[in-house]
Amino acid sequence: DQQVKQNSPSLSVQEGRISILNCDYTNSMFDYFLWYKKYPAEGPTFLISISSIKDKNEDGRFTVFLNKSAKHLSLHIVPSQPGDSAVYFCAASAVGGGADGLTFGKGTHLIIQP
Amino acid sequence: EADIYQTPRYLVIGTGKKITLECSQTMGHDKMYWYQQDPGMELHLIHYSYGVNSTEKGDLSSESTVSRIRTEHFPLTLESARPSHTSQYLCASTGGFSVDGYTFGSGTRLTVV
């Protein structure tokens, strides 16, 4: 039973345009959400996070939006650059419940085309 | 420069062999984790540790075992490797109570033939 779902295995976006990666979750106990970026043959690296008390968090070209009622979050990258080509994992945690383990989605492979 | 190291990066081994995947971190983190990932799939937590002599099983059942004798070292052992163990194994650590602070190693790509 997948608690964090990334329904798009891959996404192709032209360089300079906006990339939007989506993530849905089912566990209402999740209160902290993160995005990780992963290049082949490397471990994931932390990108951006958002607490459930917020609906938006921005860091440079990256913005994460959270819609708690829909149990949906999205990562916006604008403008998209070739170095953004990677697999992006959505992750969630029930921090308020005392847990600090992460539950990951299956990832979305973002391809930035020149 | 990585502060968490995994060796080997790649390993091809025959069925029935005993293997140990190494993970070491130089950050003094108490909490360490092992995740398993198959291509195109999510990362699954298989083991974690909150400090020396503390080890727990994660969400995904695994035939592997771990030990935590030193803070910086969290090796994972498979007593008898099988083809079903073929996967990527990722080690992570964090200090304090911050999910933001997860630092992942580069992973070990294990192939059992």
How would you summarize this macromolecular structure in one to three sentences?
The complex is a heterodimer of chains A (114) and B (113). Chain A is mainly β.
Structural features, described:
- With 114 residues, chain A is mainly beta.
- Chain A has one domain: Sandwich (Immunoglobulin-like).
- Chain A is 0% helix and 53% strand.
- In chain A, strands 2, 4, 5, 9, 10 and 11 form a six-stranded mixed sheet that branches. A five-stranded antiparallel sheet of chain A has the order 1-3-8-7-6, with no helix packed on it.
- In chain A, a hairpin with a 6-residue loop joins β4 and β5.
- The N and C termini of chain A lie far apart (38 Å).
- Chain B is mainly beta.
- Chain B contains no helices and eleven strands.
- In chain B, the strands form two sheets. In chain B, strands 2, 4, 5, 6, 9, 10 and 11 form a seven-stranded mixed sheet that branches.
- Chain B is globular.
- Chain B starts with a strand and ends with a strand.
- The interface between A and B is medium-sized, with 25 and 29 residues.
